[in-house]
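User: My collaborator and I are trying to settle a disagreement about how two of our proteins should look. Neither of us wants to argue from intuition anymore, so we agreed to look at predicted structures for both before our next call. Could you fold the first one, then the second, and keep them clearly separated?

Assistant: That sounds like a sensible way to settle it. I'll keep them separate. The first protein:
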Amino acid sequence: MGRMHAPGKGLSQSALTYRRSVPTWLKLTSDDVKEQIYKLAKKGLTPSQIGVILRDSHGVAQVRFVTGNKILRILKSKGLAPDLPEDLYHLIKKAVAVRKHLERNRKDKDAKFHLILIESRIHQLARYYKTK
């Protein structure tokens, strides 16, 4: 998908391996991974943070290949999914930070312009999630 408020075309992306089977060296079972996900979600971590921890600490490259489901779907089935979608939450957090900056620096026209862009992205995402 292209960029909304930038000139770039957004072509770069990480390349996933074609092989979708579980690596032979991974000793964790599907249930072990799910238990780890539940434990980390109860600590208040987002699905992407959970994925990073599982990748770095437990050697699970792709949760979907091990469990058959994505992290968010696993959390939804257990009722542990976050109230706000993660991308929308981070955009709102960014908009709040820029607003706070604008309270202190009223003449910052650049920040004011970028706040408008951030808020339009928030509205775009909200519209997407309402239809979904």
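The second protein, kept apart from the first:
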Amino acid sequence: MAGRRATGDAAGPAHRRVPPEQRQFNLILALMATEHGLTKQDILSTVAGYAERFDDEADRASLERQFERDKEDVRELGVPLETVDQLGAEGDTRLQRYRIPKSLYQLPDDIEFSAEEVALLGLAAQVWRESSLSEQSRRALTKLKSFGHAVEQSVIGFAPSIRARESAHDPLAEAIDRRRRVSFPYLKPGAAEPELRSVSPLALVNHEGRWHLHAHDEGVDAPRTFLLRRIVGAVRIDDVEARAPRPDEAARVQRELQDVFERTTATVAARPGSEADVVLRNRAGTVVEGETLIVRTTDLAVLAEELAAFGADIRVVGPDPVREAMLDRWRQVVNTHG
């Protein structure tokens, strides 16, 4: 693009060239992993792409210019890289800290993506996870910890979870607005065939990244909460008036789901340093007990599916139904591809 400044490395042949985009990724990762920010000295001496040249005094001016260019490029990408002066030392660039506040680096709640955009973002998320798990990234963050910086582990091995809403969501939301009953085929865990459910929809709730429908099941005359991903066919809006939801219906269901999440656990052992180990350690609610991880969930069947994806890197200690469900998942894969 005309007028675009060069961002290539100024390092000589004695230094391994790190592509600008990789160096800038390393910079973003380091700044997102620290709450209070890093000084220029911290960055240049620890972040891959700078640290290799830090000890070369003759190259220091060139290295600092490279850092200044990278800061501008990162900001042009829309990343809110802030510069914070130390109290009483305003303007002293040696003491200034750089940071990326997480609160400013989040998408607005009303942003939605098409299926194609979700797929592309999913690939980008995988690249982030693999890069953040690289040996270079681990070494840099370990070095920052040794310097006394609190490192936010949740960015390591983290793949942003971006999900398209299930197709059942919109007709269910419409039925709630119109106060109409709905019917849909629902596949319970372990069932071979779906069952047709007729319900009065009361509230749609997102918990731990998954959409749930709370409704009054007219077939059994009792309240039920359904996971939208298990609705396996079209939602039909019936011309029958539904029961009215309570004013606090959604908030009450959120509390109930959180209660289930707090008391429903599985105990697993992951291969140290594996993707399973890193991801599960940083999962919300996980408790580390020696070599085992106690993982919380609202749905043990869904958790079993997630654990199965880690393959041989994971072992389920208990409960037995989760272990069996994970093994069944593996058997299905073998039977399908065997």
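Some points you might bring to the call about the second protein. The CA atoms of residues 259 and 298 lie 9 Å apart. The two ends are 50 Å apart (CA to CA).
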